[in-house]
Amino acid sequence: MTAIATVPSAVHIGRDDLPFADLGEGNLLKVLLVDEPNGCYVVETVFQAGFVVPTHRHSSPVYGYTTTGAWKYQEYDFVNRAGSFLFEPAGSVHTLECLEDDTRVWFQMNGVNMNLDDEGNVVSVTDGAGTLSYYRALCRKQGLPIPEVAII
To answer: What three-state secondary structure class fits 135?
Structure first.
């Protein structure tokens, strides 16, 4: 008997296929992919000027690409603007601060995100599955369709 190979197919998510969930004050989150076996997840965010993500550390590398606006890490001098690519090595500690309204950034995160208090102690941990659960809960609460996120 001859085995039939299954050929994997590409997964396409169109620009408007998934809703943005409102995080408050016009800050938005869209989860595009969760690959739990490999600890990877991809999100798209839209931040408004003044929005700050609490100080955190990642257990694995993170990649970010900015398509509009400007943001920075309070711990560094550089500013991420439209067209900027950012690589964060595992273990780096930073506090994201948005500088311009409607700043749109795509992040691929691996592993877990550890939120830190002022003394550097871990106060909470998030990962792809937790981020997806939070995103879906926000969508339900806001009356948005339950998103068909790519889940591997």
So the answer is: helix
pLDDT digits (tens, 9 = 90+) for 58-83: 999 999 999 999 999 999 999 999 99
Strand partners, 124: 115
Please give the distance of CA 73 from its chain centroid, rounded to a whole number. 15
Backbone angles phi, psi at 121, to 5 degrees: -80, 145
How far apart are the C-alpha atoms of 47 and 35, rounded to whole Å?
24
Taking a C-beta distance cutoff of 8 angstroms, is the pair 89, 143 a contact? no
8 Å CB contact between 58 and 67: no
22-43 per-residue burial string, b: 16 or more CB within 10 A, e: under 16: bbeeebbbbbbbbeeeebbbbb
Please give the full DSSP string across 41-80, using - where no structure is assigned.
EEEEEEE-TT-BPPPEEESS-EEEEEEESEEEETTSS-EE
Strand order in the sheet with 93-94: 93-94, 56-58, 113-116, 122-126
Structure tokens at 141: 């609460």
Number of Cβ within a 10 Å radius of residue 49 = 15
Q: Residue 22: pLDDT above 90?
A: yes
* Element of type H or E holding 134: helix 128-141
